[in-house]
Specification:
- The N terminus is likely disordered.
- 49% of the residues lie in helices and 5% in strands.
- The protein has 130 residues and is mostly helical.
- The protein has a two-stranded antiparallel ribbon.
- The radius of gyration is 15 Å and the shape is globular.
Length: 130
């Protein structure tokens, strides 16, 4: 659940795109567009930091969050391409075990098709790898 104390009204649409992205690796452009409320083609890094606080930084690598926070403090804006590059690096599954990904998917099953529990074959999650 989102963190209390962070402006929530403006982030609810983005929250659903975030869960979808973490569960499926898809919808990054839609996430960006939901945060780019003035449709300028860029988002303030500081606004994205606030959004990540809203979602309790779920699925984000600490070192990548620190880099983003520094950009926010400097007043930097992120273009779509910069956002996508950061997002892939920050949510890379290299350090996540398959079991963690499966649990996240089960928690947000409405964002995609559910994997059969009968199939015991090891599943490789190829999205979001760097």
């Amino acid at each position: 659940l989102p963190s209390p104390g962070v402006p929530q009204q403006e982030f609810w649409n983005s929250y659903h795109f975030w869960n979808s992205y973490l569960s499926t690796g898809r919808g990054a452009k839609e996430l960006f567009e939901s945060i780019d409320v003035d449709k300028s083609g860029t988002i303030p890094a500081s606004a994205f930091v606030l959004f990540l606080d809203f979602v309790n930084r779920e699925g984000v690598r600490v070192e990548e969050f620190v880099k983003l926070e520094e950009q926010g403090t400097a007043g930097d804006e992120l273009s779509l391409q910069e956002f996508l590059t950061w997002l892939v690096a920050a949510t890379s599954i290299d350090e996540h075990k398959e079991a963690e990904v499966q649990v996240r998917y089960e928690n947000h099953a409405s964002t995609g098709r559910r994997r059969s529990t009968i199939i015991k074959k090891k599943v490789e999650y190829a999205w979001n790898e760097t």
